[in-house]
Amino acid sequence: MICLSKNEQGAELLANYLAKTLDAPRTAELARHIQECSDCRGLASVWERLDEFAVPEVSPGFDARLYARIAREEARLSLRTTWKSWRRWLWPPVAPLAAAAAVAALVLFLQVPGTPDAAKQANPTQSSKAEIEQVAQAVDDLDLLTPIDK
Amino acid sequence: MEAVVALERDAQLMLRVREGDDTSFALLLERHRGPVVHFLYRMVQNQAVSEELAQEVFLRVYRSRKTYEPTAKFTTWLFRIATHVALNSIRDRKKEKGHESLDEDALDGVERQVADRQPTVEQEMVHEVRLREVRQAIEALPAKQRAAVLMHKYEGLDYTQIAGVLSCSESAIKSLLFRAYESLRDRLSHMA
Ligand SMILES: [Zn+2]
Questions:
Q1: CB contact under 8 A, A62 and B59
Q2: Chain A residue at shortest CA distance from B63
């Protein structure tokens, strides 16, 4: 049975038939069948109708736009790598200092916009436990306290 | 035989990209730019959107170069990325606009190209009507069927590759494709 509508391979068979890649006996058999079977004639004509769906040319600037995106992404990645290598360099002697500086900076940053009352609290010794935890959390987020050799 | 050579060529190029050879990436782009953009164009039926999505596809290819392993045929891998990107975009656009048919801006480049050929007014009208019918019939297919038909009909992927792209069994793809062609026939048969 070669009816395309009753054949699991129908789509493939039809594609090969229209591309003239079937062997001669099968081509002849299918051609005869398509004459007689309106289902198969319908499928064959759909295949041909789909050829009408033309596509526009790819815009000339396509590659340039892509390479610009790739360059932007590469730049971002290399910035990240640079930051990591600086951290590595800084780590043993200076990192605790850098961390301390970051804590101080963060405490200042958190307190500065406040009222005189808040300014009074800028001294870390007077900060509440919650605030210290908050700052520690922020520094953790900055990844400054993570040992490199971990 | 030719397919094996093509597999090796693309995979080899990609392996060279993995080693940092950007010329090989340019060659891959040259070979696959057209098929990927055209597949996406027929998926979303909008030139600007399809090119934006194709950029995303090639960006992902480049991004994953360091971990690339030639386990599947390169085309299968590439179209898996393209289909993923297309299905996401279709889903997002549906969410944004609600379920609607072809929007006006979708009928762009091709009809302009048709006009450039300067046929008679009647020829042009008939052609436009027929083209619109084909586009709407394709658009009416469920997205996965649409992707399968486009890969099968226009990009020459076989059942095995389409099954690889859509992560289905080959027999599932056979019946999916057949259902798709039957619904296209039912939609288009009155004007064959
Ligand atoms: Zn038949």
A1: no
A2: A70
pLDDT band at B117 (very low <50, low <70, confident <90, very high): low
Which pLDDT belongs to residue A121?
45
Q: Which amino acid is at B42?
A: R
- Spell out which residues have Cβ within 5 A of ligand 1, the ion: A 3, 5, 37, 39-40
Task: Indicate whether A83 belongs to any domain.
Answer: no
Output the CATH code of domain B122-191: 1.10.10.10
CA distance B110 to chain A (A): 5
What's the CATH fold of domain B2-93? Rna Polymerase Sigma Factor; Chain: A (1.10.1740)
Check A45 against B189: CB less than 8 A apart: yes
CA nearest to B148 within chain A? A11
Confidence of residue B97 (pLDDT cuts 50, 70, 90): confident
Does residue A148 belong to any structural domain of this protein?
Answer: no
Residue A30 lies in a domain: yes
Joined tokens for residue A133: 């935890």
Query: pLDDT confidence of A50, banded at 50, 70, 90?
Result: very high
ipTM score above 0.90 = no
The CA distance from B179 to B56, in Å, is 30
Nearest CA to B69 among B13, B15, B3? Answer: B15
The domain spans of chain B are 2-93, 122-191
